[in-house]
Write a structure and sequence with these properties.
Length: about 220
């Protein structure tokens, strides 16, 4: 596998790879299958912030499953170490990690997905190799990257934000809408600019015009 970093943008095909994980070997695209996927990286095993994050995602896994979404983590350690770490995660957070954690001690996948931290010279392993940052990728069933977020190693993620964006993307794919600032599931949405007012009368009977370019509507959605 080449360690040359590709240019990944929204809409890029998520690079495929084979790797060992805490749940055994996988081929990434096969693992995704017809689902959505959340790929998220961690600097290292047995670290404080990562332990809280993996516990939080493990607790929320049923919510992601309702949204036809698979979770998969990555950390710069071995699969054997991941499995030992999972015991600590359950002990600390009360959550059992059921999704796989990719073993990436040589940073091959980290480089493939540009997960390396170049701003923090202290973010190194015991061999002096750069550790991964807290990257998040939302990938749809066609294997396209729909969201990229990157946090420094020192800052834990907001799991509710990952679900919020996933809801926005999935609802936007099914309906001709976008979502406004701080939107959460159940709030009013924005009628997509490509929808004329005449179409909107049929698609969104309760829509209202705030400005010619801003039209809001309630959107009835079933529970995920």
């Amino acid at each position: 596998m080449s360690t040359e970093t590709p240019t990944l943008r929204l809409g890029s095909t998520a690079p495929d790879f084979e790797a060992d994980t805490s749940n055994g070997p996988i081929k990434f695209h096969d693992y995704i299958g017809d689902s959505w996927a959340i790929l998220f990286s961690h600097p290292d095993d047995f670290t404080p912030v990562c332990t809280t994050e993996l516990g939080a995602f493990a607790k929320l896994e049923p919510e992601f499953s309702k949204r036809n979404t698979k979770l998969i983590g990555l950390s710069a350690s071995s699969a054997e170490k991941h499995r030992a770490w999972a015991v600590d995660i359950e002990d600390v957070t009360g959550a059992k990690v059921g999704f796989p954690i990719i073993a990436d001690p040589e940073r091959k996948i980290a480089h493939l997905y540009d997960m390396i931290d170049y701003q923090d010279a202290t973010n190194l392993d015991d061999k002096g190799v750069q550790l991964t940052i807290r990257s998040v990728f939302i990938i749809d069933p066609s294997k396209k990257i729909r969201l990229i977020m990157a946090y420094p190693a020192s800052t834990g993620r907001n799991s509710a934000e990952v679900i919020r964006v996933l809801d926005s993307l999935q609802l936007g794919d099914k309906n001709r809408i976008t979502t406004p600032i701080n939107w959460v599931r159940g709030d009013d949405v924005i009628v997509h600019p490509s929808v004329s007012n005449e179409e909107a009368k049929t698609l969104f009977p309760k829509f209202r015009i705030i400005k010619p370019y801003l039209r809001m509507t309630p959107l009835e959605v079933s529970d995920p």
